[in-house]
C-alpha cells in the first residue's frame, strides 16, 4: 500500500533558495482550480503551472507528486493552527471556531465543497487531509480537557463527542452559509453557547 503524503512531506529538496511568491502562486493556482469545480484527478501539474505562471520544473522541485501539492494547498487554505489565549473555555472555543471559518482563499466555501467527494474517492487525499486538520482538533481537545480539569466543564464530559458537536455544525454552516434563521454574525458564539449549555459544570 502506498504511503499517503501529508502536509509538508514528499517535497523535493530545492537546489536553490525557495521563492515565497512562487510557492504562494502555485498553492493559490491549485485552490483556484478546485474552486472552479476541477476534481483532484482532473488537475494536472501542467494546468497548475500555467495558472500560476511558473514552469513545471518549479513545481517538481518543490513537490514530489500532485497529491503532496494538493495537501499543502489544503493546509494553506486552512491557515496556521490557532493558539487560544487560555483564559476561558468559552472564549477559546469561540476563537477556534472563528479560525476555522476564515480561510485565506477567496473561494473557501467552493474549495471545501469540491474537496468533500474527493476525500471519499481518494484514500491518500483523505489521510493527508486528516493530517492537516488533526492538529487543529487536538487544540480544541486540549481546551475541553482543560475545562474539565478547571471545573468549567462537566467531569463526565465526552471530549470526542463534544468535539464533533462543535466541528460538525461549523463545517455545514461553512458549506451552506445562507441558511435561514442561522445568524451569520455571532455564529461562533451562538454555537459554543448552545454546546456549553449541556457541557458546562
From TrEMBL:
Alphabetical keyword list: DNA-binding, Transcription, Transcription regulation
Domain HTH tetR-type stretches: 20-81
Keyword Transcription regulation: yes
Protein name in the entry: TetR/AcrR family transcriptional regulator
Short name of one Pfam family: TetR_C_11
Annotation: DNA-binding region: 44-63
Amino acid at each position: 500500500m502506498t504511503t499517503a503524503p501529508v502536509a509538508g512531506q514528499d517535497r523535493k529538496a530545492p537546489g536553490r533558495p525557495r521563492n515565497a511568491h512562487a510557492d504562494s502562486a502555485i498553492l493559490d493556482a491549485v485552490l483556484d482550480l478546485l474552486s472552479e469545480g476541477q476534481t483532484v484527478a482532473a488537475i494536472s501539474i501542467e494546468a497548475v503551472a500555467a495558472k500560476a505562471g511558473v514552469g513545471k520544473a518549479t513545481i517538481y522541485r518543490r513537490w514530489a507528486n500532485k497529491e503532496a501539492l494538493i495537501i499543502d494547498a489544503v493546509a494553506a487554505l486552512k491557515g496556521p493552527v490557532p493558539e487560544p489565549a487560555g483564559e476561558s473555555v468559552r472564549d477559546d472555543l469561540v476563537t477556534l471556531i472563528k479560525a476555522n471559518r476564515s480561510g485565506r482563499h477567496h473561494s473557501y466555501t467552493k474549495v471545501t465543497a469540491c474537496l468533500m467527494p474527493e476525500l471519499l474517492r481518494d484514500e491518500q487525499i483523505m489521510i493527508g487531509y486528516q493530517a492537516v486538520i488533526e492538529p487543529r482538533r487536538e487544540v480544541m481537545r486540549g481546551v475541553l480537557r482543560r475545562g474539565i480539569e478547571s471545573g468549567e466543564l462537566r467531569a463526565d464530559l465526552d471530549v470526542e463527542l463534544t468535539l464533533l458537536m462543535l466541528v460538525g455544525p461549523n463545517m455545514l454552516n461553512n458549506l451552506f452559509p445562507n441558511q435561514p434563521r442561522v445568524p451569520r454574525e455571532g455564529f461562533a458564539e451562538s454555537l459554543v453557547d448552545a454546546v456549553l449549555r449541556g457541557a458546562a459544570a
